[in-house]
Write a structure and sequence with these properties.
This protein is α+β, with helices and mostly antiparallel strands. Among the domains are: 148 residues, Acyl-CoA dehydrogenase/oxidase, N-terminal domain (Butyryl-Coa Dehydrogenase, subunit A, domain 1, Orthogonal Bundle); 126 residues, Butyryl-CoA Dehydrogenase, subunit A, domain 2; 136 residues. 58% of the residues lie in helices and 13% in strands. β13 and β14 form a beta hairpin.
């Protein structure tokens, strides 16, 4: 089954939840009017549905191959990448000074959802390049920006991040790659693993961002520096020339994302790969976090995207698969399984959570635009604090749900879902990496509790709770059973999130051990509660549209029903996370290490 971008749902989330009009009013975004946004979305949907999606199955079956040091991507990938670059899609949100189109990150996030839904194995090359551009844009020298950004923004060259080593996974303080100064550059040596699109045949050059240590650097993360290490050295004319001393040693054989080459990279086998220091020595990890935060939002969007793809396939199958009688009818003849209560429960669960994810993800992207472009410095700073708070929630909650929703997709297919022929299993296999890379979801929960809540005692989260309560007050004035149920759920969500945040903030002022033990439960509660908030905003907008007879009535009615399902079915179990949050610290560390 192929993919069709859910344009109506995307436009609704962009306008009614994320606040597209406010983003388009920010300085520098005046060209991003509704007509322009609609045109971009329409064209992206065509490329995603007609170009990328048909390659997804073969990408999974054939995958990438390493042949004599060259990685051959899956059939059709190089051609569609050329079409992608020719169409200017890579340049959408980037600085016009370097060839970008200067469009809002809000729009770019919606377009990214399409790429990742259509073909996540392909979409990963775009995700890594986007992060590398962001890091160079923020921390590179003027010369580095002039040399690399125009070609990377155009898509002629792609970028990677090189962090992980065999002995240094999440703990980057353990990395051993070396960088020895030689004149105006450094010689890089060492091995990096899990490098997405570290080698491929789609672009002219690959710009690696590599973390390494200089000889006199201190131990730990303070001794890490960041280097630009191009696959092909760039001449004075700006053109790629001699091959640098780096190579792909092997490709990982993975559970999913087979089309994306996950490379083991070796640097300096013949004396040292030429690398150029980004910024100052010893500040590499802080620079790389610019790229990682960008990537974490994008990975969260991947969770949303794979969930949408799994939902579309499951819904189509449920409408076509005839099996057993209708429970609500005395007629003995079999009906499509979409008529069965448990299948409907699963489809509604998928749908409601996807809509909440999309609302929150787009809202986060709009906040990024505000933090970048708002004319008031205090507002930019305050909004960036909110972005920092939302990033770990979006990354972890979305990717956990991506797995759960892809699994429900397999379940709806029944035994056929377990068979590769249907394609449902691929979505589940592809989704499984998402809670792991760009910082495991446990690390996201630790970051949320240990950094974001601890730094201000939970004040940034309480500001969100205050907005949830304001939304509840507005909803309480509206008439109708559906909106009343949504309002009741939102009030419960705000109260639970406030109580949980108070408990976490209190514990992290001490040793924080109990809060860390319950951090995953807290993050789950945060995501689901904030999902209730954006669902409520959508429900209020749908109700207003119905009253004014704006748009399709059936579409607006469905938004109300889905928000009510979220409030009454999805939300209550998540609010029960208050119990595990408080209790986990008593037992998580109770057994000795050797008991495991």
């Amino acid at each position: 089954m192929t993919y069709a971008a859910p344009l109506a749902d995307m436009r609704f989330a962009l306008r009614e939840i994320a606040g597209l009009a406010g983003v388009a009013a920010l300085p520098g975004y005046e060209h991003a009017g509704e007509d322009m946004i609609d045109a971009v979305l329409e064209e992206a949907a065509k490329l995603a549905g007609n170009g990328l999606a048909p390659l997804n199955r073969d990408g999974d079956k054939v995958g990438a191959r390493l042949e004599n040091g060259v990685v051959r991507t899956a059939p059709g990938f190089a051609a569609i990448y050329k079409e992608f670059v020719t169409g200017g899609w890579n340049s959408l949100p980037f600085d016009p000074e370097f060839g970008g189109q200067g469009m809002p990150w809000l729009l770019a996030t919606g377009v990214q959802e399409m790429w990742q839904s259509a073909n996540m194995g392909f979409g990963l090359v775009l995700l890594l390049n986007q992060g590398a551009i962001d890091a160079i844009q923020h921390h590179g020298s003027p010369e580095q920006k002039a040399t690399y950004l125009p070609r990377m923004i155009a898509g002629d060259w792609t970028g990677t991040m090189n962090l992980t080593e065999p002995q240094a996974g999440s703990d980057l303080g353990q990395l051993k790659s070396k960088a020895v100064r030689q004149g105006d550059h450094y010689l890089i040596s060492g091995q990096k693993i899990f490098i997405t699109y570290g080698e491929h045949d789609m672009a002219e050059n690959i710009v690696h961002l590599v973390l390494a240590r200089t000889p006199d650097a201190p131990a730990g993360v303070r001794g890490i520096s960041l280097f630009i290490v191009p696959k092909l050295l760039v001449g004075a004319d700006g053109k790629p020339g001699k091959r640098n001393d780096l190579r792909c040693v092997s490709l990982e054989h993975k559970l999913g994302i087979h089309a994306s080459p996950t490379c083991v990279m070796s640097y300096g086998d013949d004396g040292g790969a030429v690398g150029y220091l980004v910024g100052e020595e010893g500040r590499g990890l802080s620079y790389m976090f610019t790229m990682m935060n960008n990537a974490r939002l994008a990975v969260g969007v991947q969770g949303l995207a794979i969930a949408e793809r799994a939902y579309q396939q499951a819904a189509a199958f449920a409408r076509q698969r005839v099996q057993s009688k209708d429970d609500a009818s005395a007629a003995p003849h079999p009906v499509a399984i979409v008529r069965h209560a448990d299948v409907r429960r699963m489809l509604m669960t998928m749908r409601a959570q996807i809509e909440a994810m999309r609302g929150l993800g787009y809202y986060a992207a709009a906040q990024i635009d505000t933090a970048l472009r708002h004319p008031d410095a205090a507002t930019r700073k305050e909004t960036q604090t909110r972005v920092d708070l939302l990033i770990p929630i979006v990354k972890a909650w979305f990717t956990d749900l991506g797995n759960e929703i892809a699994s429900l997709g397999v379940q709806i297919h029944g035994g056929m879902g377990f068979v590769e022929e249907t394609g449902a299993a691929q979505h589940l296999r592809d989704a499984r990496i998402l809670p792991i890379y760009e910082g495991t979801n446990g690390i996201q929960a630790r970051d949320l509790v240990g950094r974001k809540i601890s730094r201000d005692g939970g004040e940034a989260m309480r500001a969100l709770v205050a907005e949830m309560r304001a939304e509840h007050s507005r909803l309480a004035t509206l008439a109708g059973d559906d909106i009343a149920a949504v309002a009741t759920g939102l009030e419960a969500a705000a109260n639970a999130l406030d109580e949980a945040t108070g408990w976490v903030a209190g514990d992290v002022r001490g040793d924080g051990r109990a809060a860390m033990a319950g951090s995953a439960a807290y993050l789950r509660l945060c995501g689901t509660a904030l999902g209730a908030w954006v669902s409520a905003r959508g429900a209020a907008a749908a109700l207003a549209r119905l009253a004014s007879r704006e748009g399709d009535a059936a579409f607006n009615e469905a938004k109300l029903v889905t928000a009510r399902f979220y409030a009454e079915v999805i939300l209550p179990p998540a609010l029960a996370q208050l119990g595990p949050l408080r209790a986990a610290g008593r037992t998580v560390f109770a057994l000795p290490d050797e008991a495991f």
